[in-house]
């Protein structure tokens, strides 16, 4: 794996750690800031709101900035947000700091995905993107449990301080190992927004919101489901969450090569398997071993969806993939909020602690329907490509033809 991909994975590791560690430290944060635990939970929403807002806005602002420089600027903002979180004197400023920390999240993943796809041969673009995403899944195995334990032992501020250090390491790695990738002549906010108007991009984002909402419908309530139905103690739930992360890592490793071979079939299979796994969990949650096996599988097929959705959006956005790739992470955070809300409604309605599994299955099926709709609409249309050469952001829509293509050489594009 090129060192540049490793640097991008470190960025993803830091993002994954800061995003999910807050959930495990809510009691400590509530005590430290003098608010209730439910009120402290608004910090999770503040971060998610930052992601939703920041992905399109920061990507648009940086549309003409070379990718490496933009990655460095966004990583710097990530460090500032987490330092501000560690130093916040009261809940109001902590809320603002978590919003600030969330702002670069989607843009970092979006720009990082475009950069990763251009670091390798075109036929390995999806594998490169999935390697970057490995940082996020490993964070669920190592970063989140370690951050939670650190915050419980040394105070919640220490967890955010540790994430800021990870951000500094990522910043140095990006500066050292990521090569310069110039923007094309037609790069800019208008070019990116024009690409976002593609119907297939809209359907891809809707698929991410609805289909991945099925994943979060269960993930959001996994701990109470395990303690109330499976009989697992509170002290053991961290290990179960790590097991979930192991499944996510395996799914990400498998998704890359399969997406390079067949993008849409990989997406269809991931959503179908997620629905089946959720239904299975509804019945296995009452027994420890079957529940653990099913949880690992849900983690695997959930992350299995991430890479094909990312590559699909980059392909349909054609020569301006950065904002579409970043907006995918806004979609995932909307999926997080929507899935958790619908799963909570099912529990509140008296359907039982296992009911989020069925809600998740229904959302996964709905996402599969959207994905199929996009596939049917794509029939008969010209092939879509993921632009992977660093100079390919000059649009062919304006009648320009890449020099390599005029000379009969490979253009660095990967068909979906």
TrEMBL record:
Transmembrane segments: 44-63, 70-89, 95-116, 128-147, 159-180, 201-223, 235-255, 267-285, 291-313, 334-353, 359-377
Listed CDD domains: MFS_NepI_like
Example of a GO cellular component annotation carried by this entry: plasma membrane
Gene Ontology molecular function terms on file: transmembrane transporter activity
SUPFAM superfamilies: MFS general substrate transporter
Region feature (Disordered): 380-416
Chief location category: membrane
PROSITE patterns: MFS (PS50850)
Mode of membrane association: Multi-pass membrane protein
Domain annotation Major facilitator superfamily (MFS) profile: ranges: 2-379
InterPro entries in the cross-refs: MFS (IPR011701), MFS_dom (IPR020846), MFS_Efflux_Transporters (IPR050189), MFS_trans_sf (IPR036259)
Compartment list: Cell membrane
Keyword terms: Cell membrane, Membrane, Transmembrane, Transmembrane helix
Biased composition (Polar residues): 386-398
Protein name: MFS transporter
């Amino acid at each position: 794996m090129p060192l540049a991909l490793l640097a991008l994975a470190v960025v993803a590791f830091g993002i994954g750690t800061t995003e999910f560690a807050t959930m495990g430290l809510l009691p400590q944060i509530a005590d430290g800031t003098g608010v209730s635990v439910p009120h402290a939970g608004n910090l999770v929403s503040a971060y998610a709101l930052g992601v939703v807002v920041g992905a399109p806005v920061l990507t648009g602002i940086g549309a003409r900035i070379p990718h490496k420089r933009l990655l460095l600027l966004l990583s710097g903002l990530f460090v500032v947000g987490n330092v501000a979180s560690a130093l916040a004197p009261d809940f109001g400023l902590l809320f603002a700091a978590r919003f600030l920390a969330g702002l670069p999240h989607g843009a970092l993943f979006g720009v990082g995905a475009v950069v990763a796809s251009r670091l390798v041969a075109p036929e390995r673009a999806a594998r490169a993107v999935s390697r970057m995403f490995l940082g996020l899944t490993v964070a669920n195995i190592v970063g989140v449990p370690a951050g939670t334990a650190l915050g419980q032992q040394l105070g919640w501020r220490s967890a955010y301080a540790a994430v800021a250090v990870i951000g500094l390491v990522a910043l140095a790695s990006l500066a050292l190992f990521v090569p310069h990738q110039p923007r094309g002549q037609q790069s800019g906010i208008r070019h990116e927004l024009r690409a976002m108007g593609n119907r297939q991009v809209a359907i891809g984002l809707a698929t991410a919101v609805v289909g991945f909402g099925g994943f979060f419908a269960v993930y959001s309530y996994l701990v109470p489901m395990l303690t109330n139905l499976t009989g697992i103690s509170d002290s053991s739930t961290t290990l179960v969450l790590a097991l979930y992360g192991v499944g996510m890592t395996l799914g990400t490793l498998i998704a890359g090569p399969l997406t390079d071979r067949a993008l849409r079939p990989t997406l269809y299979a991931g959503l179908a398997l997620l629905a089946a796994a959720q239904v299975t969990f509804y019945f296995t949650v009452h027994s420890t071993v079957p529940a653990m096996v099913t949880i690992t599988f849900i983690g695997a097929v959930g992350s299995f969806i991430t890479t094909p959705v990312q590559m699909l959006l980059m392909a349909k956005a054609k020569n301006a993939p950065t904002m579409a790739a970043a907006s995918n992470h806004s979609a995932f955070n909307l999926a997080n909020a929507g899935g958790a809300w619908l799963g909570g409604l099912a529990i509140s309605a008296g359907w039982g602690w296992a009911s989020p599994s069925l809600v998740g299955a229904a959302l996964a099926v709905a996402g599969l329907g959207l994905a199929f709709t996009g596939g049917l609409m794509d029939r008969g249309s010209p092939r879509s490509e993921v632009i992977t050469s660093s100079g390919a952001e000059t649009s062919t829509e304006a009648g320009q033809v890449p020099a390599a293509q005029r000379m009969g050489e490979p253009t660095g594009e990967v068909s979906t």
